[in-house]
Design a protein that fits this description.
This protein is of the alpha/beta class and 236 residues long. It has one domain (2-229): Rossmann fold (3-Layer(aba) Sandwich), CATH 3.40.50. It is 33% helix and 16% strand. It has 8 helices and 7 strands; from the N terminus they run E-H-E-H-E-E-H-E-E-H-E-H-H-H-H. It has a 7-stranded mixed sheet with strand order 3-4-2-5-1-6-7, with helices on one face. Helix 1 (15-28) packs across helix 8. The radius of gyration is 17 Å and the shape is globular. The termini are close together. The structure holds adenosine-5'-diphosphate and magnesium ion. Residues 15-16, 39, 43 line the site of magnesium ion.
């Protein structure tokens, strides 16, 4: 089983949408996939046809003593499953030790995709303990804000995945050239294009490939899934 954590360099870069889209793409390649929401916003569920009002999830089960974290597991489609975070009514801290729980999921899934909040240096947002051997992708957008963050904070260790790439934008093309030169080998070779289908998928409450399998962004995400398989290939 491969545990792959996606986090944005900042909010709004499309991390949650990519977790859902990538999970769906891996599932169409015959992989057993779990989407696991570790973001306090609890929005991943909205890509999986859950109602806006839904409050169920692992954190709620746990904090409110309504059962075990794994009771909140839901089938999305085929071999694609979701573990929503849920919204507990109390502010008591959750037990964010996922290392052991991920062990328990070993036999059931080939991939666990984690939706993580963006990391802000110096701000300790009770990061979940994920244990060793986690693969990571950091989502960025080719804009001046992400460029500034990369410059100030450094590129970090994880491969950088460019989302919402717009080849018509001169600035984006220039930044892509600059990053390819400066961040040699650090960029994921496949970019995900800016595509209305990605925004439509969320409005439709579906993963991208389910909503618009022929769209440009869905093709990008399928290529990304192939790259991930080659990079971290899940073994049964
Ligand atoms: N490649 C893309 N093209 C167009 N819209 C996108 C793309 N990726 C994400 N979006 C849209 O951007 C918004 C923010 O995406 P989201 O996945 O919630 O970002 P994050 O999790 O990083 O905060 C959503 O409305 C989503 O549909
Ligand atoms: Mg998000």
């Amino acid at each position: 089983m491969t545990v792959l954590a996606l986090s944005g360099i900042r909010g709004g870069v499309g991390t949650t949408s990519l977790v859902a889209g990538l999970g769906f793409a891996l599932q169409t390649m015959g992989q057993r996939v779990l989407l696991l929401d570790l973001c306090p916003r609890d929005l991943l569920r909205l890509h999986c046809n859950l109602p806006l009002e839904s409050v169920e999830g692992w954190a709620r089960s746990e904090r409110m003593g309504e059962g075990s974290w794994s009771d909140a597991l839901l089938q999305v489609v085929g071999e694609l499953y979701l573990l929503p975070r849920g919204r507990p009514e109390t502010g008591a801290p959750t037990n964010d030790s996922w290392a052991q729980r991920l062990q328990q999921l070993q036999r059931r899934f080939d991939w666990v995709l984690l939706d993580l909040p963006p990391e802000v240096p110096g701000v300790t947002l009770a990061a979940p303990d994920l244990g060793e051997g986690i693969a990571r992708l950091r989502v960025i957008e080719a804009d001046a804000a992400c460029h500034a963050v990369l410059h100030i904070e450094g590129a970090g260790e994880a491969p950088l995945l460019i989302n919402r790439f717009d080849p018509l934008s001169q600035l984006q093309r220039d930044l892509l050239l600059l990053w390819r030169e400066r961040l040699e080998g650090r960029l994921v070779p496949q970019v995900v294009h800016r595509d209305e289908a990605m925004a439509g998928a969320l409005a439709w409450k579906s993963p991208l490939g389910y909503y618009a399998g022929d769209s440009l962004a869905a093709q990008d995400v399928r290529s990304l899934a192939t790259w991930c398989m080659a990079q971290w290939g899940a073994q049964r």
